[in-house]
Amino acid sequence: MYILIIAAKNIKQAGAITKRRKKDWYPYVVEEEVIGDFLYNNRSVFENYEYYYKFDPYGETFIEAVEVIKIKQFAESVIKFLENNDLDENKIIDSYKISFLKIKKFSQKLCEVCEFAIENNLGLVGYGD
Q: H/E element holding 13?
């Protein structure tokens, strides 16, 4: 299971973007199930998790442009958590079978998608599988 998150005006535009050839560049990020499990189980330590949690892993979700900054703040708080808790990495690997590096790369890419959306006054569309 995963969630594809892409910057777009609406769900219709996001659908058109995802069908284009790879040469057309649009920022997107994919949240794998293990990352989602880690985020959910540690949600109390992340800023604005309630905004990120709106992404439906089983359907389509649209986050309005005015809320994208909240998603970016969430992603930044994940990065900060990882940087401040590097001694817990082995526990995370044992529990979720995922490294801090992979979670950090996801969070950094989510920040990039949010920055693109903010700069272009776009929302975020999430497609669950």
A: helix 11-19
Mean pLDDT of the region 46-70:
96
- CATH of residue 11's domain is 3.40.1760
Contacts of 13 (CB under 8 A, 6+ apart): 125
Could you tell me how far CA 57 lies from the centroid of its own chain?
12
Tell me which residue range forms the domain holding 64. 2-128
Give CA separation, 6 vs 38, 63, 88, 91, 93, in Å: 21, 10, 31, 31, 27
Q: How many domains does the chain have?
A: 1
Q: What is the pTM of this model?
A: 0.92
pLDDT computed for residue 86 by the predictor: 81
Q: How far is CA 104 from CA 39, 78, 98, in A?
A: 12, 8, 11
